[in-house]
Amino acid sequence: MSVHPVLAISLVLVALGTCLGVLQACQRRLNLHPEVARKLLHVAMGFAVLTFPFIFDRAWPVAVLAALSIALLLAIRRVRALRGALGGAVHGVSRESWGEICFPLAVCVLFFVTNGDPVRFGVPILMLTLADATAALIGVRYGSVRYATPDGLKSIEGSAAFFAVAFLSTHVPVLLFTDTGRIESLLIGVLMGIVIMLVEAISWRGLDNLFIPLFGYLLLQRYLGQDAVELAQRLAVLIALSFAVLVWRKRTTLDESGLIAAALVGYATWALGGWHWLVAPLTGFFTYTLLWPRTDENTAPFHNAHVVLAVTVPSLVWLAISARYGQTGWVYFSTLAYAVQLALIGSIQTRYAFSRGSSRRHPVYSSAIAWAVMFTPFVLLSAQRDAALVLAAAALPLTALAVSAFLLLKRRLAKSAGGHRWALHAAIGGAATVAAVPAWTALV
């Protein structure tokens, strides 16, 4: 039963202000840990948000409420008087975070795409409300086994708590409020728990408040309606990819967050595109430290999730477009994107390892090696071998041009921070795939 929109908006804003005030007072009098105060606010507002499907029958009041909440929270961030009066629960932690802004934004988007469906809206919000808060509190109190993330150290204990609560937050509503069978609801809960746990582990600066509900909705939307065999296959693939990444970890340059990101990218690639889309990223993952000379740069584990995302984002964009429009032939662009990334890594490694006069320092060398490694399986697995050969041939000069452009631009950015290098990786890879569109269009 819906409530008048203006009254509902007013009540939610009053609840938000009251929670901020009460938690600020508790923090001063009881000396609450800043993370505890922050997560108590998180839980209180999460439970308020869970009522939205029952008090709102349209999306515009939620959008208005989100805009007003963001305005209030930004004012607390910027206005010193408000920050002193109400900001303890929001800004008590030392790390920079935009989580309080991401939360209402995610709620607004989620309500719109689910049309207020209680299960599809409620499950992601429940995970964000309970699993995220439980993980943070358990990590602060009991976390002892730490791992690196882009946002600092997190704990295995916190991640395990996140999985347990996310599993229950999915399994119980799906079992009780949908027609999904018991085995299917159990498998959906396990899948959601693992994947969203991994997403939360590599989120940074409060973006988990955006990633958890949106990824949770996308996964739930895909899993509901699938039978037990399909769900079990997805779970088996997820476990197999995670195990493969774990076994190969010492041969990579990835830290813990990079390994988690690699497993997630592999699973997302398979889930959206199938096995033929997975060949290129697996080939790149297992060969990028074996093809090039061993130096300090390709032995130490210091590449994090941001690096993995920069390297894979051009392919992931083509994957998303392909999944949307059903164009299986676009795997060519993904293969080219990974060939370019492999060549870029090789161009840096060979320049570190070989003398100035060595021919192996030339960009054509790394381009040819990377191209052969990536496009050999592409041609062998293609149903149209002749067209695949021509497309592969067209990819070689594009790969070499991409490497040359990268080296030229990198010299100009030599004094910049390392993050610019990986942004350049993503930009060059994306540009190379766009340049390949005319050749693909002419041949396919």
Please provide a brief summary of the model.
With 444 residues, the protein is an all-alpha fold. The protein has helices at 5-30, 34-49, 52-55, 60-78, 80-86, 88-91, 99-114, 118-142, 156-177, 182-201, 208-223, 228-247, 256-273, 275-287, 305-325, 331-353, 363-380, 385-412, 418-435, 437-443, and strands at 146-149, 152-155.
Notes on the structure:
The protein has 444 residues and is mainly alpha-helical. The protein folds into 2 domains: 5-226, no CATH class; 251-443. The chain contains 20 helices and 2 strands. The chain has helices at 5-30, 34-49, 52-55, 60-78, 80-86, 88-91, 99-114, 118-142, 156-177, 182-201, 208-223, 228-247, 256-273, 275-287, 305-325, 331-353, 363-380, 385-412, 418-435, 437-443, and strands at 146-149, 152-155. A two-stranded antiparallel sheet has the order 1-2. A hairpin with a 2-residue loop joins β1 and β2. α1 packs parallel to α4 (60-78), α12 packs antiparallel against α13 (256-273) and α14 (275-287) runs antiparallel to α17. The longest helix is centred in the C-terminal third of the chain and has 28 residues, at 385-412. The radius of gyration is 24 Å and the shape is globular. The termini are far apart. The mean pLDDT is 83.
Keywords:
444 residues, mainly alpha, 2 domains, two-stranded antiparallel sheet, 20 helices
How does the SSE layout of this entry go?
Elements (H helix, E strand, L loop, with lengths): L4 H26 L3 H16 L2 H4 L4 H19 L1 H7 L1 H4 L7 H16 L3 H25 L3 E4 L2 E4 H22 L4 H20 L6 H16 L4 H20 L8 H18 L1 H13 L17 H21 L5 H23 L9 H18 L4 H28 L5 H18 L1 H7 L1
Helix pairs in contact: 1-2, 1-4, 2-8, 4-5, 4-7, 7-8, 7-11, 8-9, 8-11, 9-10, 10-11, 10-12, 10-13, 12-13, 13-14, 13-15, 14-16, 14-17, 15-16, 15-19, 16-17, 16-18, 16-19, 17-18, 18-19
